[in-house]
Structure formats: C-alpha cells, structure tokens
Amino acid sequence: METAPSSGMKYIEPLSLQSFVEKIFRALDVPRDDAWVAAHVLVDADLTGRYTHGVSRLPLYATRLKRGVMNARPDIRFESGPFPIMTRMHGDNGLGPVVAWRAMEHAIALAKQFGMGVVGVHLSNHAGAMSAYCEAAAKQRVILMALTNSPPGMPPWGGKKAFLGTNPIAFGVPRGDTTPPIVVDLATSVVARGNIIQAARLGTPIPDGWAIDEMGQATTDPNAALKGAVLPMAGSKGYALALIVEIFSGILAGAGVGPAVKNPYNDFSGAPNVGHFFWALNPAGFGPSEALYEALLDLETDIRQVPPIGTESIRLPGQRSDHQRRESLQRGIPLDLDLLANLGVLAETLGVEPLVAHSEGFDGGDPHV
Length: 369
Known about the structure:
Elements: E1 9-12, H1 14-27, H2 32-47, H3 58-66, E2 77-80, E3 86-90, H4 96-114, E4 116-124, H5 131-139, E5 143-148, E6 169-173, E7 182-186, H6 193-202, E8 211-212, E9 218-219, H7 222-227, E10 229-230, H8 236-252, E11 274-281, H9 289-304, H10 319-331, E12 333-336, H11 337-350
Parallel strand pairs: 3-4
Antiparallel strand pairs: 1-12, 2-3, 4-11, 5-6, 5-11, 6-7, 8-9, 8-10
Helix pairs in contact: 1-2, 2-4
C-alpha cells in the first residue's frame, strides 16, 4: 500500500474525478466508452491507495495522445491461433487501460465458455494498476492472473544497467458477491518505479536500498535513480520473476522485450509496444463457487488466528486496499497540490471545467465509481 504524497493535499469527490478524467479523454478524441474505461482504471488506483498508478499518469497519457504517438481510436483486433482458449491481441497502440480492459474481457469470456482463457497483448501502452483488472474479473467470479512488461527500469541480478521493466504480477480470486476478493498486485522490483517518478516530481529523496545510479552506486536521489535502475525485490528471486513476466507478456504476446519497450516519458518516436498477458480461470471447473468461497473463508479464519506481532490485525491481500477504497469514497481522494496544478493546466488547455477540490475530507462518494 502506498502513502499519499505529503506536500500538501486536497480532496476530490470520486465521481467528480471520474467525470473530469472522462472529459479530458473525450477532449482528446477518445470514444465515450473507452474514456470511461481509462478513467475508471486510473481513478480506481487512487481509490485503493495506488497513487503512483492513478490520475498522476493522466498528463503523460494526454501528452502522448496530443502528440499523436498514442492512438485515441485504436483498431483493436484478435489474432486467432490453433487453440480456441488462446489468442493474441493487437492493441494498435491504443490507450493502455482500454487495450488491457478489452483483453481482460475477452479472457473472461473464454473462461466462461471453455473454463480457461489466455490473451497475450502486443502494441499496447502503460495500462495502470493490474489490480483493477483482477478486481473486475473477480466480480464476474473468475480468477485472473495479469502480467505486463514495461520499459527498462531494473537490472538483471548482478548488473548495473536497466534491462527489464519492473514487470508487475497480479492475481485476483473471487470470494463471493459481497466479500472483497483476494488481490495480489506487486512489482518484481523493490518498489514500483512510479514511486520514484512521484518522488522526482515532488522533489523528495527516496529510501536507501531502492535504486542505483548510472554508475551502479546506491542513491537516494530520485532523478539519479531514474537515470540508473530500481533494484529487484528479494535479489535474484525478483529478477527471476521479472524475467518470467518478460517471457509471457513480451515474447509470447509478441510485444517489445527489454530495451525494445520504449520509455513513454522521454521517447516520442513511436509506439512503446508494451505487452500484457491475461490468464483467466473459471473456478467452477473445480466445483461449486459456494464451496470455494467457504473454503477461502475457512482459510482466512485460520490465518487470522495466528497471533500478530504488533497491534495491527492480520489481513488477506487486498483487504487493506478495500479499506482504503471505503475511506476514499467517504472522505474523498487525496491529490497533492503539484498534481492538481498540472491537472488544472491540462484542463484549461483542453477547455475542460477544472476540478473542485476540498481542503478537508467530506462525507459522500459512490461505491460504483
């Protein structure tokens, strides 16, 4: 769980933020349904406390759309292969959240029909937090594994130059219509690179042990870290996991691999060719859904009986994010002043009504954002 930036905060009503982001995308010629999807993925990240993958990415998306290096109206198409449950998807350089959402929907449809669905995606872009797709699949009673590669940001174990992306791995497991799913969403690096990007934007140092500079030396300077590399989590184990993600979402999906994935922040020469990989499983193939939910509840009960080290209770993955979602829906989504200023400039440039921010939290919100 990330913490909100501390350089001064204001709060935005979630539905207002969703509407604002949709209007920004519509002003950039994104179709209405696609604008909703992209806004939902970004706002959902902020709702659940994943601030580095939320609306802070909107100015980047807008810049690439305005420059014509990201396709506002992609011709997304599926490339059939020899097996009905597996397919590649051509993202046509569309908005990452839109391309990924369509791939997820197709994987879920395959899983409902055949018990399993696998979609590898190429020619996509940054798709936001993978947790959004896992949560959406869980609402349809489908287990989802979501992988994506990203521009070089992490060295292979023992190296001092970035080669692999921070390559996140995410899983979602449904637990019923009224119980939050188990959601695992983790970067294979010590920390998601978005945290370093955010620190650079806010001018704050990063903790020791996160990254190295261009010379391979440890650094707490986020700008030096962005020129260098973020370190793998768990040493060689994180590197191994990142490599597997690269194989699935890069090689199998037919996307860019390693340095062939372009950095969207400083390379405007063309499509980054980011790859995703969605594997959907219909758990009904192993028995009634209710039996699965009961077994998961028993598992949670047993886990919670383990005595905690401190005063904080033991949680399952995803429960902290669900708590943050409920809090954000009641109090509002916190955005730092620097980001609000950037969003204000973007809105003025595109002729969109600016956000209304509150100095303090408030009661309100809608759980269906």
